[in-house]
Amino acid sequence: MSPKTYDIIIVGGGIMGSATAYYLMMADPTLKVAVVERDPSYAQASTTLSMSNVRTQFSLKQNVQISQYTLQILNSFEEDMAVDGQKPKIYFRQEGNLFLVAASDEDDARQAFQMQTQLGCRVEWWLSQKIIDHYPLYEPQPFVGGTFGPDDGYFDAYAVLMAYKARARILGAVYIQDEVVRITKTRRGVSGVALSTHGNQTAEYVVSCAGAWAAEVAKTAGIDLPVIPVKRQVFVLDTAFKFEKPLPLTVLPSGLYFRSETGGLILLGKSMADDPTGFAFSWDEQRFINHLWPELAEFVPQFDRLKVVRGWAGLYAVNTLDGNAILGQWPELNGLYLANGFSGHGLQQGPAVGRYLSELILQKPLSLDLSIFAPQRILDNRALSETGLV
Ligand SMILES: Cc1cc2nc3c(=O)[nH]c(=O)nc-3n(C[C@H](O)[C@H](O)[C@H](O)COP(=O)(O)OP(=O)(O)OC[C@H]3O[C@@H](n4cnc5c(N)ncnc54)[C@H](O)[C@@H]3O)c2cc1C
Question: Which atom of ligand 1 is found nearest the CA of 53?
Fold first, then answer.
């Protein structure tokens, strides 16, 4: 491609960076691809701190299609991603997602439900009695019902990340442990990155997959990106009452969500308006006790006795313009591609995003058109609505 050190340098080796490296190398094994990741333990990466849920229950068509692809690949992931006969164990469990619907949201929920079924997703509309038939410990009476996606579920995010990384490396991608301190450019466009200890590295293309640090990385190239880190907490609960069968990821209209975890535990969280912004990772048991437990116990009265076993906090990379991905070439800097702003649903989008970016960069036909997420809308200050109309 060029006399530069690399064809493509990827900033950040989380799910976005590693899936992108994998799809690039799959498409063209002669490429010189480097992934720069400052922390190979991924201690603060959102990928490893996520709830690892995948669902087709979205209201934007492209988000549904992205997850359909993820569900498709997860089913044969262990076979497809084996390295030297060693299969990754990703513990993919399709225990469903149940979204409770408030009367005020019913029209929107029915519209989304119809769109999902038209796209071929398995999703069911349940009235309260059906919810109780399946999950007798729930109290769904305040709601008009719920939508249940039996194919939705969760998996081991770390194992999936490690599988992409291992396969990308086997195919020839290089992982560099370092920090990108600057995206370098010439008048023609991007020219590479400056690293904290390995000096300047040149490349034809730079792809920013820096997660919650996306705005900081973009700033080094003079770009103002509306992406902020927001702390989200997850609590691990040991309830006195033990449920007999797994509980699906259950989402109340307020945003409170929980699901059963192996070992008879419950994982629970909620995005709240006063969640702090910034790079902080402490978690606060009182937040659960004071704010979330009363709401949980109202919906599941048997959960009035429980212990908080532990918890953790991770960062959502929130796109403050419209909460959706910013995906594709930055219009004002040739060769710089962004995969940023995934908020709370980026893990499941990694495979489709990685494939899309590789096709865009290599100018191949698109398997799935995700141009709706193109960065031009940021420059135009044109928010994407829930239905995708701008
Ligand atoms: C509590 C919580 C629950 C979630 N639940 C879900 C869920 O159920 N389902 C779902 O799909 N998504 C979920 N998400 C969202 C999902 O985790 C993220 O959208 C996704 O992991 C983003 O991946 P990424 O690769 O962009 O970012 P990350 O995984 O954060 O990776 C970015 C990497 O870039 C590196 N980096 C940053 N800056 C630099 C630099 N200058 N130089 C070198 N390296 C750098 C970082 O070290 C990091 O490893 C959740 C997130 C949180 C916090």
Answer: 8
